[in-house]
Structure formats: structure tokens, C-alpha cells
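Q: Could you write out the predicted structure for this multi-component system? I'm mainly interested in how the pieces pack against one another.
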Amino acid sequence: MKSLLLRQALVLVALALVPAIGQAIYYRDRVSWQTPIPASELVTVAQARSWGESAIWVDARQDEEFARDHVPGAILLNEDRWNDLLPQFLAAWSPEKKVVVYCSAQSCNAAREVAKRLRDEAQLKNVFVLEGGWEAWIKTKQ
Amino acid sequence: MFFVRMKFAWRILDLIVAGIFIYAGALKALDPLRFANDIDNYKILPWAIGVRLAFYLPWLEIFCGVALIARRLYLGGVSILAALTSVFIIAAIAAKVRGLDITCGCFGHASKNWSFTAHLALDLLLLGALLFLLRVFSNQRRTCSF
């Protein structure tokens, strides 16, 4: 039974490789294979702060987290209420401004997703993800 | 009559489990980049490995699900799915213990708002079902070999 299991598992493992490799080839130019976010799209707290008034801060966390505390002047824009919140963001945005998106920490996904949607759907340039997120911001405040 | 009913129940369970994995695999295969981010959130694997797994694991889930429905490579399919589910449960618990703010990614974007408890409950349920299927299959083989 063990050899049967092993043989069958190996066949399935090999079969799944075929479409996976095909898909990876199809996506080869759209994926960052070595780092999660290209360094050019990341910004540190110090850098983002140095941009001063020319930066718009976007809080991609949940409403309650935003209500608790946020970067001064940040605009709430999360995926859950994307359609409701986007107009408010666009009203504050202007082409010369840099957009800095953050979520709770380095490990959260929301900032990447919101930044991606701003680039893809709203066709914005100069959209950056804050390295370390809200946690990094808090640390620099202390 | 009892055995016919049992066989019918086994088949139904097969289809449900297979359907869940095919659905979950298809959702992730449609958006491998999002799944790569979800894997990365667990902070267990380096991105370079996680992103490659994100392209591979959904297809493995789909093929194993199809194996369950088609009853070809059945034992291999159930075993791989049980192993994948176990690994995921351990990874999810480890992430929770480390206080990571994660989205599980099990059902692509559809599961992003699920709570940790809901994820864990579904995965434990799936693991239980897979282990049951494995047991029924090995019992049946043993009976047939006599």
C-alpha cells in the first residue's frame, strides 16, 4: 500500500507541474520572482516623511483601526469599502503628489493590494507601499 | 443495504471534499500573485520559494480533487490533500501564535475576511474528512484482498 501511495502521489505531483510551469512562463514578466514588492515601489518612513506636503498618506487598514489612530492627514481607503472611499481619496489627490499606502505591519497584505488597485484601476503613478506599515510609523514616533 | 448506503455516503463525501479543493485551487490558480502574497504573509518561506509554490500548489489541489472524483490515483490524491491541509493548519496556528496579521488565502480573495477560527474549523473538518476517506479506502482494499 505504501508503494502504491508513493507512486500515485508522484504521478500527481508531476502532473500538477505541467500547468504550473506553463502558467509561470505566461506570468514570467509580471512577477517579481526574488522579492515580494519591487524595491522601487517601497518607501521607508523617513523617506515618506521627507516628502512632506507632496505626499498623500493612505490607510489601507480596517475602519476601526483607522478610527483608533492613523498617520496625521491620512485618508482611509480599504478594499472592503473601496467604492465608497475612493472618491474621497481622488478628491484629495493631484498628479504631482506621491501616494504612500500603509497597513498594520510588514506582514499585512492590504497595503500591497490597495497600491496595486490604485495603479491598475485608478491608473495612478507614484504609488508606494510603506515599509513596515503602521508599526514602523509608530516606532519612529517613539 | 447498509453497505450500499455506506458506499453512497462515501461517494458523496468524496465529491464534497473534491469539490472544495477544486474550487479553492481554481480560485488561487486564477490569481497566483495574490496567493503568493498570502503565502508570504505567513513569514515561513522566503518569497522566492513562496511565489513558486503559489503557481504550483493550486494545480496540485485541482489534480488531487479530480483524482478523488475520477477515482484514479485516489490514494495518492487523498494523501497529498491530507498532507497539504495538515501543513496549512500548522502554518496558520504558528502565524497566529506569532501574532501575524494574515489572510489565509485558502479560497483566494473569497476568504480574506474570514476569521482565524472559521479557517481553522474548516481545515480541521476537511482534514477529518480526508482521514476518514483514507481509512475507508484502506479498509476496502484490505477486505478486497481477502
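A: Regarding packing and overall arrangement: The longest helix of chain B spans residues 116-145.
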